[in-house]
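Explain this one:

_____
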Amino acid sequence: MASVQVTNQLTATDKEIPTPNKFDGSARTRAKDYLLKVDLVNQPISIDLFKDLSIGFDPYVQVFQVPKNSTGANVADTSGLLVAEDDDSGTNQNPKIPGFGTQYSNGASNPLTSVPGVDYVVRVTSFRELNQLPRPFTLQVSTPSGNVTLNDV
């Protein structure tokens, strides 16, 4: 199994985006993007996002397909295709892909599977507006075989 893990936090200097919660109106939140590269095709991709249990926030994860070897701070927003997102499918209401509540879109398979010619951007954000920062998290991505890398965008 190939696995990579990043521990970080959402801060006031991170990208500001609309919340994924459709009922929040014009509410905004913060997001960190990570470029995910999977070296083998047809590998199921597992993504877990864990919050610090002592701090209350509702973490959310989104996955975008981007053209292979894409770069730039806004690559998910300019050339990304949203393929999966999740709010509470993991333990302690943490996001998990694949999970019972994972939403797949734009032709993505269930489970999310690596395809040729693309990389992925994994976006860590919150479902609702963040009133306090920073918000620590741990992001873990794994596949059954091959190598995976996860780098700041």
Notes: The radius of gyration is 14 Å. The chain has a mean pLDDT of 93. The chain is about 5% helix and 45% strand. The longest helix spans residues 75-79.
